[in-house]
């Protein structure tokens, strides 16, 4: 069986490295710029390069359909900016996020912004993708971080200049990472693929129940 994994192209950044990391046996990666067609997939990936307002504007025409699909069980993986789009709003600029995770996006409280480079990832527990593919260090390129209202959504934490923030979150069928797994060596790529496998397998279990 081949699963269709849809990578949303909102016009920012090169998607090649992420698409390459996602391409595995049994997975067909489709790059889609039309937000109205994002729900026609086995799993949705929101990539991590660009500005919040631009991405939110591209999501806006179908934001309610996408939110409903995710809340209905469509697996979704958000990377960096893609994780921030899972939240309600951002200090970076205007526009509404999907709001599938309650909370906002704030600027890093640090002297050196953006944070660029490797940083420690501290899992809250061995669960989900962290059980399949442990990852304790990852590559970051970000100026903003997420602030969930319910910290039980946090799967892992990181810290930059004393500012502690979620490295990974999960709510229902949506999971997000603030780092770039596709740039975090072989361990990061395997972690990304573990997130995809988790999402696809959980969806299959729901449909078989």
Rg over alpha carbons: 15 Å
The whole-number mean of residue pLDDT values reads: 94
CATH superfamily: Class I glutamine amidotransferase (GATase) domain
If classified by CATH, what would the architecture be? 3-Layer(aba) Sandwich
**Could you tell me the strand content as a percent range?**
25-35%
The main pleated sheet reads as:
8 strands, mixed
The 3D shape can be described as globular
CATH topology: Rossmann fold
Number of helices: 6
CATH class: Alpha Beta
Number of strands: 13
Give the end-to-end Cα distance, rounded to a whole number of Å: 19 Å
Helix content: 25-40%
Spatial order of strands in the largest sheet: 2-1-3-4-13-12-11-8
Domain count, please report it: 1
Give the low-pLDDT segments. none
Overview in brief:
The chain is α/β, with parallel strands linked by helices and about 210 residues long.
Task: Lay out the secondary structure.
Layout: E1 3-8, H1 16-22, E2 27-32, E3 43-46, H2 52-59, H3 63-71, E4 76-79, H4 81-84, E5 89-90, E6 103-107, E7 115-120, E8 122-123, H5 129-132, E9 137-142, E10 144-148, E11 154-160, E12 163-171, E13 174-177, H6 185-208
Parallel strand pairs: 1-2, 1-3, 3-4, 4-13, 5-6
Antiparallel strand pairs: 6-10, 7-9, 8-11, 11-12, 12-13
């Amino acid at each position: 069986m081949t699963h269709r994994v849809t990578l949303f192209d909102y016009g920012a950044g090169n998607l090649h490295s992420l698409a390459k990391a996602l391409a595995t046996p049994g997975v067909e990666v489709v790059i889609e710029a039309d937000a109205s067609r994002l729900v026609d997939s086995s799993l949705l990936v929101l990539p991590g390069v660009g500005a919040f307002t631009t991405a939110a504007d591209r999501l806006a025409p179908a934001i309610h359909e996408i939110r409903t699909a995710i809340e209905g069980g469509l697996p979704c993986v958000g990377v960096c900016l893609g994780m921030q789009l899972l939240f309600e709003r951002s200090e970076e600029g205007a526009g509404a996020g999907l709001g599938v995770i309650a909370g906002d996006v704030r600027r890093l409280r640090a002297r050196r912004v953006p944070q660029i480079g490797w940083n420690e990832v501290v899992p809250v527990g061995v669960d989900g993708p962290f059980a399949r593919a442990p990852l304790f260090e990852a590559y970051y390129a970000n100026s903003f971080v997420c602030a969930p209202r319910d910290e039980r959504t946090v799967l892992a934490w990181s810290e930059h200049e004393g500012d502690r923030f979620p490295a990974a979150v999960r709510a229902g069928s949506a999971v997000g990472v603030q780092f770039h797994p596709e740039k975090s060596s072989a361990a990061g790529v395997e972690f990304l693929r573990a997130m995809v496998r988790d999402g696809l397998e959980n969806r299959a279990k729901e449909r078989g129940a």
